Amino acid sequence: MSQDSHLIFADHVGRFYARQYGFPPMAGRLLGYLFVCDPPQQTIDELGEALLASRSAITGAVKLLESYKMARRTRAAGERMDRVELDPASQQPQNFDSSIHKEHAALFREGLALLADAPAERRAPLEEMTALADFLAERLPRLLDEWHAYREELRESGKLPDSSD
Length: 165
Prior knowledge:
The chain is mostly helical. The chain contains six helices and two strands.
């Protein structure tokens, strides 16, 4: 794959993460590049050169990705500079924490209590959000279990490489 192709892919990832998650475009571009760069560990200077970005822009993007456990810095013994790579935790399912949805449901119920005497049409948005939060809190743990079973099937069939969790 050519360097231009890598940059185009990185730009696509950057736009997606900016649009869907509010990431600064450079953080999304960096994430995309980390998926396809060779070698998979790069210095800040190498990343800046590849992505045509300043050292400070790359450093800020790395810090953001580290906060989301999407990238990490490593340093080999005797080296004077960090290398940046994808964090293996980023390849694990995210956002399956049902406690978040239980908390949402509790907040929405608090709002419903405030509207106890309100007409049904005024209560409807909170009732629907409560039902959705309860649904997600119940289903996400099961969905995560299904994903683990499916991933194991893919590994056993050779469609995914065998790796540790």
